[in-house]
Specification:
The protein is an alpha+beta fold. It has a single domain, classed as Mannose-Binding Protein A, Chain A (Roll), CATH 3.10.100. It is built from 2 helices and 8 strands. The longest helix is centred in the N-terminal third of the chain and has 11 residues. It is globular. It starts with 6 loop residues before the first strand and ends in an 8-residue tail after the last strand.
Amino acid sequence: MCPSHWHYYNGNCYSYSFDSDPVDHGTAVSLCQEGHSKATLATIFSSEENWYVNRYMRYADATTAFIGLRKKADTENDWEWMDGSEVGYTKWVEGEPDVVEGQDCGGMNKEDGTWFSAACTATKSYHCKLQPGIWKLS
């Protein structure tokens, strides 16, 4: 149902960077698109989806990974998904998101699936997602 090396869940396809070295946010976006031209870093809309995305991290060495969260331009602490979707469901670590200049990208913790704000120049693993209608069923 999904492209090779992608995993199907609830109408979407997901990929996790198991074998790659940690990369910065911009490189993670590019690598998702190398996997499929219409892919982006993962958007998460429910606790079930968060659990599914997080479970792949449990099989990897990395302790954190980029997801598709980003701080809205010219805001102090207003966040959105990279595809422009509003953030409804959240799982921020207590005290997050930080109001720290330069922490404009979002990540996920391996241990419990909580989210945190991070510098986009930091290096991490990453989760990619293809949404319905973008990929074709085989």
